[in-house]
Structures are given as structure tokens and as C-alpha cells.
Amino acid sequence: MEIPPKSPDGSEKSPQSKELLSSNTASTLCISSRSESVWTSASRSKWDIYHKPVIVVSVGAAVFLFGIVITSLSCIQTKNKNVYKMCGPAFLSLGLMLLVCGLVWIPIIRKKQKQRQKSKFLQTLKSFFFNR
């Protein structure tokens, strides 16, 4: 006869507690999934939707402005001129890249939101007609 393995702390669990554990784990996995469920209809605020691209755009703009300042210092300063000439364009390009990525990200999110709304509308229509 096979003996069930003991838990690491030495206590044995009943079959009922094992069922509770597995159902609890399954519900935790559903809650922690990154994809939005069709069943949740809680509306999100604009900040919840657009906070990542807004942060990327603002950081990109700040780095781009910093690059402008560093590049202009290479024209004004005679000391460390080579350092300013090397670092300025690097910050300019990095800031511009982040700025453009954030600005492109926003219309992508808008398009996904519209598709999600259409999908929810079609699902409600489908459930209305086919669940009669």
C-alpha cells in the first residue's frame, strides 16, 4: 500500500484541505493573470489605461531637453568641449526615441480599446440572441 507523502512541516492534510488548496490556487492564478477577462466589466480610468505611455513620453521629453542643453554647452564652454559633443547627441537621440515610442504607443492603446469595446458589444448581442 502506498503512503501519501508528508508535507515539509510534517503535518498531514486531509483530502478536503487538498481540494481547497487546489481551488484556491486556481482562483489565484485567474486573478493574477495579466489578460483582461471578458467577465470583468469594471471600467478603468484614463490614467490606468494611459499611464505607461505618458511616463515614457515625459521621460523622453526630459532626456531630449537635457540633450539640447548638453549640446548647447558644447558651443558655449571651451572646457570639456569634446565630452559635451559626445554626450549631447546621445541624449538627444535617446530622448527622441523614447518620445516617439510613447507617442506611437498612445494610438495603439486607443485602437485596442475600441476593439475591446466592439468585442464586448458583439458578445452581449450573441448572448442575447443565442441564450433564448
From TrEMBL:
Supply the InterPro entries for this chain.
PIRT (IPR028068)
Q: Which UniProt keywords apply?
A: Membrane, Transmembrane, Transmembrane helix
UniProt GO MF annotations: phosphatidylinositol bisphosphate binding; transmembrane transporter binding
Q: Does the keyword Transmembrane apply?
A: yes
Mostly located where? membrane
Keyword Transmembrane helix part of the UniProt annotation: yes
Q: Where is this region: Disordered?
A: 1-25
Give the species: Alca torda (Razorbill)
- Which GO cellular component terms, listed alphabetically, does the Swiss-Prot or TrEMBL entry include? plasma membrane
Q: How does it sit in the membrane?
A: Multi-pass membrane protein
**Name recorded for this polypeptide:** PIRT protein
Compartmental location: Membrane
Task: Give the transmembrane ranges.
Answer: 54-76, 88-109
